[in-house]
Amino acid sequence: MKKLLILLAMLTVIIAGCGKNSSTSGDSSDSSKKVTINFTHWRGEDSKAFDSIIEQFEKKNPNIHVEMTVFPSDSYQSQIQGSLLSGEGIDVFASFPGSQFETIRKANGFAKLDDQNLLSKFDEKLIQAGKADNTQYALPYQLVYNIPVYNKGIFEKLNLDVPKDWNSFLKTSETLKKNGYTPILFSGDVSPSQFINPMIMNNEPTNNALHEVETGKRKLTDEWFIKTLSQIKELNDKGYFQKDALGTKKESAAALFAQEKGAMLAQGSYMMATVKQQNPKIDQGLLAPITVDQDKAKYEGVHTTTFLLGVAEKSKHKEAAKKFLTFLADPKISSEYANATGQLLTVKDVKYDSPELKESAKWKDKKTVFQPRFTILNERVSKAVETSVQDVLSGMSAKKAAEKAQGEVERVAKN
Amino acid sequence: MSLKTNTSIQEEEKRTPSFSFPLFSFKSISKSRHLWLFLLPGFIIYTVFFALPTLSALFLSTTDWNGLSSQFSFVGFQNFKEILTNDSIFTQSLTNNLKFTIGVLIFQTLLSLGFALLLYKNSAWNTFYRSLFFVPTIISSVSIAFTWNFMYDPNIGGVNLFLSKIGLEHWTQSWIGNGHIAIYSLAFVQFWAHTGQMLIIFVAGIQAIPSELYEAASIDGATRWQKFKRITWPLLAPATTMVVAYTTIQSFKAFDLIIAMTNGGPSNSTEILSTLLYHEAFINFRFGYASAISVVFMIVIALLTFLQFRVLRLTKM
Amino acid sequence: MKQNPFRQLILGIYGLIILLPLSLVLLTTFKTTPELYSNPIGLPAGWNIENYKQLLVNEPIFGYIKNSVIVTVFSTFFILWFSSMIAYAIIQLPQKLGWIVYGFFVCGMIVPTQVNMIPVFLLMNKLGLVNTLTGVIIVSISFLLPIGVFIITGFMKTLPRELFEAARMDGASEWKIYSKIALRLSIPSMATVGIFSFVIVWNDLLFPLLLLKSKEVKTLPIALLDFQGEFLTNYPMLFSAVVLSSIPLLIAYVFLQKQFISGMTSGALK
Q1: Domain membership flag for residue A6
Q2: Beta bridge partners of A39
Q3: Is the N or the C terminus of chain B less surrounded, counting Cβ atoms within 10 Å?
Q4: Helices marked H in C93-219 — which ranges?
Q5: What is the largest CA-CA distance in chain B?
Q6: What does pLDDT average to over chain A?
């Protein structure tokens, strides 16, 4: 009796397994030639928006079925790696600029994108992060300004202008503090790697200085980097960050900002839509701390192009994948995505509806530099820089933190 | 009994076909053959789908593979050399891991044993408490991480708010923002989540001890402590070994919790070996190096577990 | 023993330490995200079941639950069956051989999952088992055999061998001895492994995420990820999903606990 049950059990399992297998991977034997492609990324918050776009795409292309898979960003690479190696289950996928893009590209993970029809839909200046050796390997989709979001209402109430140099930035923060607001809401998990960018943009000798650190041409113990760390430390020591900044998570900081308990949020333009959801009445803008005198300020802000969409070189359905990519770059579809998710895009002719998007879109005309931290191609060096910010916030001196980070850079160079 | 046995052997003899093998070896051959059959299914699945993949990954520890490219080169023991002599983050991770594991081990073992002694009888209340303590185990570690991220939040978190409400404001801490105590805050969450699980093992162990032993001891006038020392503790040896070993291994592997709560920060103060190996493999694109870390990782656990067996054996004397 | 007030106090305090964070989770499911941040530990404004409604109305949830049940039940069944067979074999093998086999399986416990996830994926791909429930079941069995063998062997070792010998003398086959004697006597350890396996497989995220690509085969924990964004986590929705996915586990636990208890009290030890 028991043996019979066991046999039945095994049979069921085998049948269940076989059944699923053939229904989802059947391509060649199908007469209707229906193809399934995978769209893989990490933005769970965009699922609904993409679902609707996928539905429209499938209507237009009845022979293509798009299966969307979302992996959380902290396990993203580990989850796509197997697929990238085998070519199974990965067709259109997103990647981060910098070391992830570089490594995948060097391993021939991306199919070359040379269809002018597709490329011409994008603002050429903004897709450089996905280019190498004059070839486009992936297309950055999102445009982000990694500078603090600020509460316009609070600034107006206290008659504050957007500060244009370091001294006025300190003065503004002091005024905010005296009036009971946290000047800068800083979250220990993302702010170190975000906030360092505007702080460094006008301090660094070239806009490639951090990359030059990893090649050995410059050092983190140089004056410009130590100055940056000490300025961050100064803000913390003067009490311009909230208590226990390191222990605060990004959602908490954003929530406090939405509740108007703080005037600036050390994250980026990507957060504006989320904040608006929590407090529809809030009026937001972007500003960057200027760490030098006004006349020495080369840049007003920092931008990043991210969410690089590419087609896997090993994909079995490259044509279908490229079709989907082209569909996503269509101005009408892009606008739909942008407004549903509150993100700025690198696509041309996108119409932004919300006040937040319109506000951030203004920054396209300002002098912004590509995120300094993403010029670093070795992740360990990037981590060392991030750690140095955490260290000064834990109380370490700027010089010691810089030395510690430089030690790590040199250790990396040896291996 | 023996009469019956003799008769049945005789009957077997009659039924046995004309093999010239003596009955004894036929039985032992057939017994061993059966034993191999028992081992076979599990062995095949385990070897093919676990052991072999693991071994192949471990061989990569002698390469510089980045995990993605089709090319890599052999570097012998260079990765190991780097780990042992030139990786301050590895050293930090190892220290953190030991702090974490020892903290969890002490509290998880003592608490689960203590509660098992209080709750081993099958009354309604006891079943209720055992089930309640077990609930955190049912919830996935990712959910537990979210819950405690919340509890430890400096502004809206339950822990600090609660402490303030009962007048212990000066006890509020930066639980996961302060590099010195973060690892311990995480250790607390780990044993909070798993004590109920170890409780079950101890309860099973205690229930397996025949009550006659305790009755006999009572008649002899033994105190509760004596009963524990002479009966419970020695007879719980398999359970204790199991709990200690499992807790150690489980805490060494604690991965989801740390990644979701602190991702190893701030400043690598909560980076443990499993998170380090993950970061090296998939963030730093050093798969070969990460494999080397896993080899060292497993050696450390094996050593620790071996030490524990020795220590526990001694206490049984 | 005595009904000690001290005992009640300790149990009560620890009970609260367990209960309070969990009730926070429960309360959060009735709030909206802004409400969560403005009123973190208080009672929700209204008993807002919007989150649960959204989850239940959303069809894939039932499909996910079905897949989770299939994977978990089959995995647990085979883990119990195979590990108990292995344990039975180990305790009868000559000492040295038994230790080698035991060590071989139990060593698997110390392997961190991140190490073999890539080779396992590549293997599954070659065998055509990616995107199948069978693939996930096989992988789950393989990584839980170590703990199954560890616990069940530990308990089976304490069983008196004379019982087996006696049965063998009576002419019982190995299978009968295993199923009628060894298994019956190992019910507490089997229930323990059963509970552990059930919970671990039900909540497993790593392998389902790695191996399952289409909606028809995805399991429940994967659904939780929909609420986890890059920069925003919808805690109320997430926790609602956690509550819903924990209910089947609680039921399974209560049921297995009963088996566990009845196994003990049915005089199995005699």
Answers
A1: no
A2: A68, A92
A3: C
A4: 95-106, 113-126, 133-156, 161-169, 174-176, 183-185, 187-203, 206-211
A5: 89
A6: 90
pLDDT tens for A298-354 read 999 999 999 999 999 999 999 999 999 999 999 999 999 999 999 999 999 999 999
Q: Which amino acid, residue B30?
A: S
Closest chain C CA to residue A80: C210
Q: Could you tell me the pTM of the whole model?
A: 0.86
The predicted structure's pLDDT at residue C242: 81
Q: What is the pLDDT of residue B33?
A: 65
pLDDT of residue B131: 87
- ipTM metric: 0.86
Name the residue in chain A with its Cα closest to that of C136.
Answer: A17
Total tally of structural domains belonging to chain A: 2
Question: Which residue, among A46, A54, A251, would best test binding to C if mutated, counting the most C CBs under 10 Å from its CB?
Answer: A251
Average pLDDT over residues A188-210: 94
Task: Suggest the residue from C7, C19, C81, C111 to mutate for an interface test with chain B (most B CBs closer than 10 A).
Answer: C111
B267 touches A: beta carbon within 8 Å: yes
User: Letter for the amino acid at C194?
Assistant: G
Residues 74-103 of B with CB under 8 A from A: 82, 86-89
Domains of chain B by start residue, with CATH: 23-62 (no CATH), 79-315 (1.10.3720.10)
**Highest mean predicted confidence (pLDDT) among B142-156, B175-189, C104-118:** B175-189
State yes or no: pLDDT of C14 exceeds 60: yes
* Domain annotation covers residue A132: yes
CATH number of the domain encompassing residue A352 = 3.40.190.10
Pick the CATH number of C53-265 from 1.10.8.60, 1.10.1040.10, 3.90.950.10, 1.10.3720.10: 1.10.3720.10
Measure A241 CA to nearest chain B CA, in Å. 13
For residue A276, what is the nearest residue in chain C, using CA coordinates?
Answer: C34
**C3 pLDDT above the threshold of 80:** no
Q: Is the pLDDT of residue A201 over 70?
A: yes
Minimum distance, in Å, between the CA of residue C70 and any CA atom of chain A: 9
A42–C230: do the CB atoms touch at under 8 Å? yes
pLDDT band at A4 (very low <50, low <70, confident <90, very high): very low
- The token duo for B163 is 């402490």
Nearest CA among A95, A127, A291 for reference residue A195 = A291
**Residue A329 forms part of a structural domain:** yes
On whether any CB of chain A is under 8 Å from the CB of C239, the answer is: no
What are the two backbone dihedrals, phi and then psi, of residue A97, each rounded to the nearest 5 degrees? Answer: -70, 165
The per-residue pLDDT for A15 is 44
pLDDT at C95: 85
Residue among C214, C70, C139 at smallest CA distance from A25 = C214
Residues 6+ apart with CB under 8 A from C163: C181, C185
Choice among A3-12, A239-248, B20-29, B55-64 with the minimum mean pLDDT: B20-29
- Full residue range of the structural domain in which residue A338 is found: 32-144+304-361
Q: Are residues A98 and A118 in the same domain?
A: yes
Say how far residue C193 (Cα) sits from the centre of its chain.
8
> Same domain, yes or no, for A137 and A152?
no
Task: For residue A414, list chain B residues with Cβ-Cβ distance below 8 A.
Answer: 86
Structure tokens given for A350: 């996108």
Q: Which residue has the higher pLDDT, C234 or C3?
A: C234
A69 beta partners: A40
